[in-house]
Amino acid sequence: MTSTVSRRSLFRATLADPGRPALGTWVKLPAMESVELMALAGFDFVVIDLEHSAMSIETAYRQIGTALMSGVAPIVRVPALDAGIVQRLLDAGAEGIMLPHVDTVEQARTAAAAMRFPPLGTRGVGSTGRAGAWGALPRAEYLRYGQEEVVLIAQIESAAAARAAGDIAAVDGVDALLVGAADLSTSEGRTEDDPHVVALIAGAVVAARAAGVPIGNAGGAGAASVRAAVEAGFTFTLMSNDASLLGQAAAAAVAAGRSVARA
User: Fold this and answer.
1) Left if phi > 0, otherwise alpha if psi is -120 to 50, otherwise beta: which for 256?
2) Distances from the Cα of 258 to the Cα of 32, 254, 263, angstroms
3) 3-state secondary structure at position 73
4) CATH code of the domain made up of 10-252
5) Which of 13, 33, 41, 52 is catalytic?
6) pLDDT tens figures, 153-200
7) pTM for this one?
8) Are the beta carbons of 238 and 182 closer than 8 angstroms?
9) Tally of helices (H runs) and strands (E runs) in the chain
């Protein structure tokens, strides 16, 4: 039977909620259960991190499926732009791709082209994968989703990128920006709270919002971190990561247990 269901991006839907920031977390552990637990916790989206983990594409493929079945939006961060890898991840059902170190408009245009089908880009058609419901989705709907629903998140991680944030955000096919404060500050030889770095980030936020493009950041797991993100003008924020959250919960459990003396 041919499916006629139109699938909508969960990530786009949560960004459209004006009442609160969209909450996500990084996934670094190569386990489907990790994604399932993040969904059960109530996160809006997860970013499966292929840049700073040793996970394979096959692992990401399984985690994408788990995310979609669990009702949490799966975004995949790739280590660098490879059109073939991007195509495989999107056909695996990823709702979007996060690309690190986008410093120029030309890089943003190249990335956007890899994400979209002709005539907007160069992505190949493969509707018999998960993104096409294994061939059950009409070709037209598979193509529509790829053109209109998938998202490209360009990471702003250098002073040059921060200064060009408005132009990068204005590139057709760039759907959101993410500020990488750690790389940005390191590239400037400064700390993240240095006034120079803070000013660069603030400028990027203003430029993105002026372009009408959502912009996010990555921070800690507490309310103070989310509050700071909101006050800085970010639309979405990543709260810690699955490995750190597990480690912190384990440490808290051990600390609680050690506080009890034997009778």
Assistant:
1) alpha
2) 31, 6, 13
3) strand
4) 3.20.20.60
5) 52
6) 999 999 999 999 999 999 999 999 999 999 999 999 999 999 999 999
7) 0.95
8) no
9) 12, 8
